[in-house]
Design goal:
By secondary structure, the chain is an all-alpha fold. The protein has a domain of 286 residues. 71% of the residues lie in helices and 1% in strands. The chain contains 21 helices and two strands. Strands 1-2 form a two-stranded antiparallel sheet. A hairpin with a 5-residue loop joins strand 1 and strand 2. Helix 7 runs antiparallel to helix 8 and helix 19 packs antiparallel against helix 21. The longest helix is centred in the C-terminal third of the chain and has 30 residues.
């Protein structure tokens, strides 16, 4: 396929962007902006077309979600959830159950809050638990195996990455994949539909995670002393629910309700009902997130230092990860230009000659998508991996005449694995920085989970493709 001059220039820009993303010579967001600006300067497309994705509705889903997540962190609702799960009597001081509880907490929090923030918070909590356990272990005849601490910290990072798959807002990678699937394949996957696909997958991966880490990093004792007392003391320090916590929980609950209602109405009254149409057109997920975020500035919070009532969040506390927003906008812009200039189709045609076009074509495409995405995510950020891989996968499907939605989903999900290296994700980097994890241990456990994760994702996407006709 002959490339147009615009496609040739875009190919050079994309190559430079990929190199910069891999090497991280510039911040990822700056590289994304550089790519977008270069497209305008070199005449790939007009500025209005290049920068249009920066105002995509999913951008505002990002913004609203970031504000809600920050309010949850500020008012320590995440810590309430963490210690509530760790205080469940079933957990007790049994090592495997503690490992499972840490996984559950990390998954639940990272489903709605940044994986990085979740990992940072859980490292602080687990460090406290291990400190109490190790103090008690010194006075005991049976000493705790130091390897258990390695497994517990790895559990934080890996479970946070897995939990990010649970909801569309769990990690930016999800929204990037959803954006490409919507724009290039015309398939809109709603919040409930995404959760219906991913929640069973997350449950399976989290269970496998606990089993693998308990096997690789045994505690060496049947019970850990000091855990229950530490959790009890920390939970007591949180005190009673504050006004700000109640308001944040209310705003978050309303947002989740607005995310879920449109999908529920489809099942109850059908897509043609006026009520379904109204919610679909007037309250898309980005607007629902903004409604919840705005409520944070209207609902009452705690009293300020001078005794005055203040809202749950004031503007100087509102933290938005603009680097992720800009990275998403720039990546989506490059992806759309790859399709509009014909570059994606040409790249897809160049690498699909060995993919069968018969009944096995879709299966091979899903497998290739997952494998390439997980390998790429080991060496660059999950977001950059999805931005690079998903458009190519879609183009490959279009080239060989196969439905590519399942393959694009497989690439999106697999891009969030990347368990082997500290540089694979911020979660890995945070727990590696604790000093409790030998690099060899992370690589060994990560390799096992990468392989299992890819197999599970491929199987899940093939089942979804068959059941949902994707």
């Amino acid at each position: 396929m002959d490339l147009s001059p615009e496609a040739q220039r875009l190919a050079g820009i994309v190559a430079v962007v990929i190199v910069l993303w891999f090497t991280e010579a510039l911040p990822l967001a700056v590289t994304a902006l550089l790519g977008a600006a270069a497209c305008v300067i070199l005449g790939v497309a007009p500025a209005k077309e290049v920068f249009r994705p920066f105002a995509d509705p999913l951008i505002f889903l990002f913004i609203g979600s970031f504000l809600l997540a920050e309010a949850i962190r500020l008012h320590r609702l995440d810590r309430r959830l963490a210690f509530a799960v760790l205080a469940v009597p079933w957990v007790g001081g049994r090592p495997v159950r503690i490992l499972a509880a840490v996984a559950v907490v990390s998954v639940l929090i990272s489903a709605f809050i940044s994986n990085t923030v979740t990992a940072a918070m859980m490292v602080a909590i687990v460090s406290g638990i291990l400190g109490a356990v190790e103090d008690a272990s010194k006075r005991s005849e049976r000493r705790l195996n130091p390897a258990f601490a390695t497994g517990l910290f790895l559990c934080i990072a890996f479970a946070a990455s897995i939990g990010g798959l649970a909801t569309p807002i769990g990690t930016p990678t999800n929204l990037i994949g959803l954006g490409f699937i919507r724009d290039q394949l015309g398939v809109a996957i709603s919040f409930p539909a995404w959760c219906a696909i991913t929640l069973p997958l997350v449950g399976i991966l989290a269970t496998i995670l606990v089993v693998v880490l308990a096997w690789l990093f045994p505690a060496g004792v049947a019970r850990l002393d000091g855990v229950e007392e530490f959790v009890r003391v920390e939970r007591a320090r949180l005190g009673r629910w504050t006004t700000g916590q109640r308001s944040t929980a209310l705003a978050f609950g309303i947002t989740v309700l607005l995310w879920v209602v449109p999908g529920a109405l489809l099942f109850v009254v059908g897509s043609d009902h006026p009520l379904s149409a109204w919610f679909r057109e007037r309250l898309p997920e980005g607007v629902a997130a903004l409604v919840g975020a705005i409520l944070l500035f209207l609902l009452p919070g705690d009293r300020s230092a001078d005794g005055r009532w203040r809202p749950a969040v004031v503007w100087h506390e509102a933290r938005i990860d603009w680097d992720i927003v800009l990275l998403y906008g720039g990546g989506l812009a490059l992806g759309e230009l790859c399709f509009s200039t014909g570059l994606a189709a040409s790249a897809g045609a160049a690498i699909t000659g060995w993919i069968p076009t018969g009944p096995w074509g879709a299966t091979v495409l899903v497998a290739v998508a997952a494998l390439v995405a997980v390998v790429t995510s080991e060496f660059t950020s999950n977001v950059a991996s999805a931005t690079m891989v998903v458009p190519i996968v879609i183009a490959m499907g279009q080239t060989i005449g196969q439905e590519a939605t399942a393959a694009a989903l497989a690439a999106t999900l697999a891009a969030s694995l990347g368990f082997m290296m500290p540089v694979s994700s911020p979660c890995n980097a945070i727990v590696y920085g604790s000093g409790r994890i030998p690099l060899r241990s992370m690589m060994a456990a990560g390799a096992v989970l990468d392989v299992i994760g890819v197999v599970v994702i491929i199987a899940a996407m093939l089942i979804v493709s068959r059941v949902a006709g994707l």
